[in-house]
Amino acid sequence: MAGDAQPAALRIHQIQRVAQTRAALLHAVGAAVAVQPWSTLSAGQLAHRAAVTRGTLHAHFRDRDALLCAWLAARLDAALLVRQPAPDAGRGARLRQLFLATTDYLLLVLTPIQRSEPAYVALVQHVAQQSLAALAAPLLRPRRSPMAMRPCGARVTAALAGALLHSAQAWCDGARDVSAEQEAAAVAAALKALARALG
Predict the structure, then answer these.
(1) Tens digits of per-residue pLDDT, 21-55?
(2) 100: burial class by Cβ within 10 Å (0-12, 13-18, 19+)?
(3) pLDDT band with cut points at 50, 70 and 90 for residue 148
(4) Which residue, among 188, 83, 89, 59, has the nearest Cα to 131 in the 3D structure?
(5) Do 37 and 111 form a contact (C-beta atoms < 8 A)?
């Protein structure tokens, strides 16, 4: 019995250590992109910020882009959690919360220092597109006959996700210079366009 307890305790310690290292790496990439353009950041610099070796970084993430994608996905997940609709929310309310979560995410990660970094912006959009495609699928199911609902095709779902991301990006481009009334009008206009796309 005592022999079993020791390996179990060791496994728990290893799991905790892996989680701590991963958290340190994600924190490091977040801190780095806040002050330095992505194109100038190396895997070695990110590892140094996390107080780990490059080998440790690569043991957790394939490369620095994979590390950035993990950080971006965590930021998007946090935005979606804050904007989570009520369980009984209709399609319009769910669409609105998805749109607002996307704008929150873009405003957070597309800082002035990174907006002119093509590779960084492409990864921001890639992470959002993948997540939004999965979340948008239920919004595209037919309203009638709930028992006969079928998931939409991947192409249609990706198209809605792309439209959602494009609308959010267009809104974010001017978000820092508009009044609260203009902001509300922009959100309403974007949602109306998306609702038309849903039919």
Answers:
(1) 999 999 999 999 999 999 999 999 999 999 999 99
(2) buried
(3) very low
(4) 83
(5) no
The DSSP call for residue 149 is -
DSSP assignment of 73-134 = HHHHHHHHHHTPPPTT--HHHHHHHHHHHHHHHHHHH--TTTTT-HHHHHHHHHHHHHHHHH
Per-residue pLDDT, 150:
47
Distant-in-sequence, close-in-space partners of 72: CB < 8 Å, separation ≥ 6: 109, 123, 124, 127, 128
CA distance 169 to 171: 5
Region 104-119: mean pLDDT is 92
Do the beta carbons of residue 60 and residue 21 sit within 8 Å?
Answer: yes
